[in-house]
Each structure stands twice: as structure tokens, then as C-alpha cells.
Amino acid sequence: VASCAQCCSWLVGQALGGVMQVGEVRALQSTACMAAVEGACSFLEAAMTQMPTKMGQGQMPETAQILEQLMQQLLALQWREPRLLTVYVRLLEAFGRFVAYVCSEAAAPLLLRLFALLEAMPMEPRGPRRDMTENAVARQRVCSAILGLAKEAPRSLAPHLAQMGERIDLLRQAGQLRDMERGSLCEALVLIAGAAGTPQQTSSVLNWALTPVKVRWQDPLLAAQMAGPATFLASFGGGSEWEEPIVRVGEASGTATETPTQRRSSLISDVHLVERTLRRLPAPAAGPEQMEHAYDEHLAWVLPTLLAMLSAVQTLWTPAGRAVIPASLHEALEMTPVERAVLSTVGTAERVRPSSPHGAGAAGPSEGEVLRDWLKNMRDSGYQIMGLTLSHVPSVYRVSGLASGLRQSLLEGIPTMENRHLRAFIRVVVQAAVLHCPQEEMIQREWLGELLPGLLPHMYTRLSQSWVQLLSSSHSTSNSSCSTSSGLPLSPGASGRGGVEGAVSAEVLEERILRELTRDHLALMQMIAAGGAGSRITPKKGGAALAEPGGGLAVGGTVSRPGSGAGSRGEGLLGRAPLLPWLLTQDASLAQQVGMLGSAALSWPDSDGAHKAVHMCKAMVMAVANGLPGSEALVEVVGGAMLGEALRGLTLTSNHSHQGEMVALIRDIVLKVGGRTEAVRKVLLTLPQMSMPALQSFEAELAAQNSDKHQRALIKRMLLHAGGDALKALAVSNPTTVVVKGAATNIDQLRARAEKGKVEQEECLLPSLF
């Protein structure tokens, strides 16, 4: 360890000496000099992350002395160039672990140096745009370094909390602090207070951080700007015809005029601050006794304004909104190049934020591109705030009228939502509500009774029609995109621009988004039917567990996939009981829609989605078999549609990996539901080689078997005999052709492979046994 510390000290010393020898300006022009500085910084960062905690117990005094001397050497530097300062700040931030475990007294000089750097750098330097950008990036990097120190050493920084707040206020009052910069610093203070302070101190810091936001969000002018798409565009659109200054309130210096560009930056900074502070607050302890949360007193003004913002953003995708958008801003409604690039691969979409606020020197983007990035960040952060609140703040479910407001603001607009937006809403907001809604009759009726009736019927219609469109397009031999004649917004049209966007066809993007939406919605249905067996969350300390694509989770949660561990045994998520019994007693028609959607998904050529559907359908079969109150409404769905779609699903090579589970599902339906409805017999009689005598013989033989294994084997033999050519795949234990999961399996690939004779027709078309 001492040798590693000596190596770090030597490398950093050599890099710093090289800069001092030639000067900052010439160092920036020297590739070798900058490479040495960057290399030394990266080496120090990697070494410090592996620093043993026992150094803080006085067991390695030599190593601690070397690192302390190196830190003092860095604190004495007086660099001025922004690009060098960006690396210099990283060097200082690397000592966060050292401050946490070895030398807490070093927190004060580190903070003083970082704040001094922030004060020394001008807000708007004179010179070329590039210099302005580099200066803005360096300033934001200083604020991020303070946040990094707060993450590593919150207890060491806790004694300096009041002084840090006073320093931030002085900078803000002097006009030397941007909104984004203040957001990073406030996040650091909230993190420190939450990790090392008392609940009262945490509440006090949060009130201090959000007071400017509260003043602005309670201004009637902001509500007027969100009233409709025309006023929303006039206030935040940024087109030349709307660049009219307005008065902004809530600043310490009084009032100031702002253009739409400045208003966008101010509003997104406020939204980010709300999200960041909420994310940094400690999650409440498990159990009903812990109901208080630092955000309780802010719910009344944060959530109504946030819902109004999200509703205003969504109105731009409505016919009324599209009608008022000028041609110069049409690209604001399209996907970003990053989103297109991610969706064209098997990766996971992540939120992309600009490294510095728009208008702070960012070069190049058109007005439409700037507005597109802003709208994406507004929607993503807004959904994250809702998801974090629903999962972290128990009192939110007792706010009167909030569920109704959520339905009116967001659910009523889902017919015009594009699939990518609807997927984010389901994954982050609806799943959080289903997972964390208290299991009290009145609260469930108020919240789930508002959300599910507006969502489930629409999703059944949308997904069914969208899959019909997608599969119909696979029949065509043309290379045209999938039709959207039904009016369902699958995704934005492909851009004619080159680069990444031009390389990705609209058809591939539509298919990928549809698959991800299907999986996320089926994960939600699985939570409802099986108590959350689709995704099991273990929230990390200080983070929220919010769903990610395909039933996974992000933002501080760990996941086990469907069929793994306790989730596959139906024990439920976080100890919660399934919602299906409640749904059956409240609205049997909704339960039927859940069953119909799960049944249809069994025969959609998507392996992940079908796997979720199998687990969901098993739960519904058990509900019928156990005679749950209201389950009579599911008997015909399970015995008819579900059995028929399960048989169709067996013909798809995409379902080969869970073929055994589908056979087990068919067995459960035949044995446990067949005696309650003639629909089971009717479906089995539609098999090509099935007759009434053969069916009666099969039923008698099945009834005589007591072993689950023998029953499944008997059903498999029956299907091989009666299913005709379509079910011959059941006889092959290791097929040579398997459909690749996810976006790698797209219609263009399937067509090409089918033309070469490398795949069976069932991979490209939805087969039918009937």
C-alpha cells in the first residue's frame, strides 16, 4: 500500500512539474503534458478508491503521511486555465475517501480551496464561445467535486454544514452562482444532512434548498404558462417569434427579465433540484411505524405544479399541440440521436442530460434540438420525482385528491402518448404506485381505482393492435415501414438526416420500443396477478428502486429476474400480497382484461414478454382453481383464450427456452379449470388431429395419473400427436435455430434469414393451429 501511495505521489509530482515548467498555456497545447496530467489523475482516482479503511485506525502511518503531503502539495497549486482546473478538481475530489477514513481535519481546507476556485472563475468570461464553454464546465466540475466529497465523507463534512450554506447564499446573492451549480451544492448539503445529521437538521437544510423553488412554483404566472400548448410554447418554446422577456420573481436581488431560453434553464434546474434532493434523502425504515419523511411538508406545492408541468409537456404531442408548433421546432417531438442509437442495439436507454445548461456557452444545436433535449429532461425528471415520491414518501398516499389529479394530468393523455413515453410512465410511476400503495381498502380504492381503470383497457387495445400491425408487416415482402393506420403512436418517424439516425430504420425502432413497452406492461400485470413476482427490489441505502426496461430496476435497486429465486415461487414483492383478489372484487372486467392481455402475450414472438406472461397466467389459473371471490369472471378467459394462446405459443421458436413452463400451464388449465367450463374441450378439439374419442381417452388417462411429471409428459405426447406439423418442435430437445431475444430480433433480420432458408416460417409469422 505504501508503495502504491509513493507511486501516486511520484506520478502526480511529475505531471505537475511538467505543467509548471512550460506554463499553463503551453501545457494545454502539449499533448504529452496533458496526457501526463490526465494519466496521473486517473491513477490517483483508481488508487484512492481501493484505499484500505484500516488506514484510519493508525495502522499505516507511513502511507497516510505520503497521501497527506500529496494533498498539501495539490492545495498549494494556483492554476487558472479552466481545462487544467477540471483535472485539478478531480485530483482534489479523489481525496474524499482519505478524508472519510484517515484525516477528517482535511475536510475544511479542501472545501475552502474548492469554494475559492468557484469564486475566482468568472460567470461569463469574455472571449470565444469555446472559452465560455470550458469555463462553465470547470465551474460545474467544482460543484460536482463538492458533491463527490459529500458522498464519500458526509460525517467529516457535517461540522461545516452551516458554513457551506452561508457560502452558497453569498455566492447566489452576488450573482456568482448558476442554478445548475446551486443544484449540485444543495444536493451535497442534503446528502450530508441526511447521512450525518438529525431529522430536524435534514428538514431545515431541505427547506433552505427548496425555498427559492417554492417561491417560483407558487407564482401564478407559472401556472398561466402551463395552461395550454400555445402558452407553453410562447413561454418556453424558444423560437424567435416568442423571444419576449418576462419578469421572474423569487430572486434575492428582486426581479429580473428572462427570455424563453433562460426560463427553460431556470425551470429544468428547479426540477432537477427537486429530484436530486429527494433522491438524496434517506428512505424511511420498513414498517408502518415509520411514516414521517422530510418531504412531507413540500408535497402540497411540489406535486400539483409537477403534474401541471408534465401535462403541459404531453400536450405538445396532442393534435392541438402539434398544430401550434412551427416547422422550425418539429424535430423537438422526435427521438434524440442517442435514443435512436441505443434502441438500435440491445442496450438500455439512459437519461441524457447536457453537461452544462443551455445558454451557458453550449455551441451548435438548433432551436428544435435544444427544445427536444429540454422536453426529454423535463419528462424524465418529472416521472422520476413521481416515482421517488410514491416509493419513498409514505404520506403521499394520504394526500387528498392527488390520485385524481394524477389521473387527470397524465392518464387522460395516454391515447396521444407515444410508446416510448408511455413505457417510461408505466415503468417509473405506475409500477411504483402498485408496489408501494398501502394495503388499506380505502387507499387502494382511491389510488389503484383511479390509475388501473384508465390504463389497463387502453393498454390491452394498444398492445393488441400494435402487435397485429407489426406481425402483419412481417407478411409483406416490401421494405416499407410498419403502418400506423390505427392512429396508435408507435414512435416518431425516422429522420432523413445521416449518421446514426439515418442508419436506423423506423421499423426497427418501432419494433424495439413495442417490445420494451410490452415487457414493462407485462411486468406490471405480473405484479398485480402474482404479487410482484416479476421483479424483486432491494432498495439501496439512500436510493429509490425504480423499474428499468424489461422488468429490471435502476436508481439504486437490485433486481432478480422473473423465474429466479423467490419471485418464481409467487411469494410476492417486498412481502406484498397479490392485487388480483382485490381487483376481482372491485372490477371483474379489469381482471378479465388482465387475463386477456396475458393470454395474447403468450403467442407474441417475444421471449421475455412471453415468459412474464406465463408467470402471470399461472397466478390467474390458481385464482380460478382456488375459487377466489369474483374468479368466476376468469373461468372462460382461462379455459378459452388462455389455453388457445398457450397452444399457439408452443409453435414459436422464440418460446423454446420456457417451453416446459408453457406445457405446465396447459396442464394446470386442463386439470384445474377443465371441469368448470366446456371451453377447454372446445379448444382442444380444434387441434388438427384431435377427435372426441381421442380427447375422452386422453382425459381418462390424465385423470389416472397422480404424478405432475407424468401428467406433463402425457400432455406433451398428446400435443405431438394431435397438434400436427406446427407442434413438431416439441419433439426436438436441442433445436438448431433459436430466435435471439430483444431488439436483435427485428423484422428485417427475420426476413433476410427466412429468405436464406435458415429459419422456419413460424419465426416470421404468427402461426395458427386452427
Automatic annotation (TrEMBL):
<dbReference type="GO" id="GO:0006611">
    <property type="term" value="P:protein export from nucleus"/>
</dbReference>
<dbReference type="GO" id="GO:0005049">
    <property type="term" value="F:nuclear export signal receptor activity"/>
</dbReference>
<dbReference type="InterPro" id="IPR045065">
    <property type="entry name" value="XPO1/5"/>
</dbReference>
<dbReference type="GO" id="GO:0003723">
    <property type="term" value="F:RNA binding"/>
</dbReference>
<dbReference type="GO" id="GO:0005737">
    <property type="term" value="C:cytoplasm"/>
</dbReference>
<dbReference type="InterPro" id="IPR045478">
    <property type="entry name" value="Exportin-5_C"/>
</dbReference>
<dbReference type="GO" id="GO:0042565">
    <property type="term" value="C:RNA nuclear export complex"/>
</dbReference>
<dbReference type="InterPro" id="IPR011989">
    <property type="entry name" value="ARM-like"/>
</dbReference>
<protein>
    <recommendedName>
        <fullName>Exportin-5 C-terminal domain-containing protein</fullName>
    </recommendedName>
</protein>
<dbReference type="GO" id="GO:0006405">
    <property type="term" value="P:RNA export from nucleus"/>
</dbReference>
<feature type="domain" description="Exportin-5 C-terminal">
    <location>
        <begin position="33"/>
        <end position="731"/>
    </location>
</feature>
<dbReference type="GO" id="GO:0005634">
    <property type="term" value="C:nucleus"/>
</dbReference>
<dbReference type="Pfam" id="PF19273">
    <property type="entry name" value="Exportin-5"/>
</dbReference>
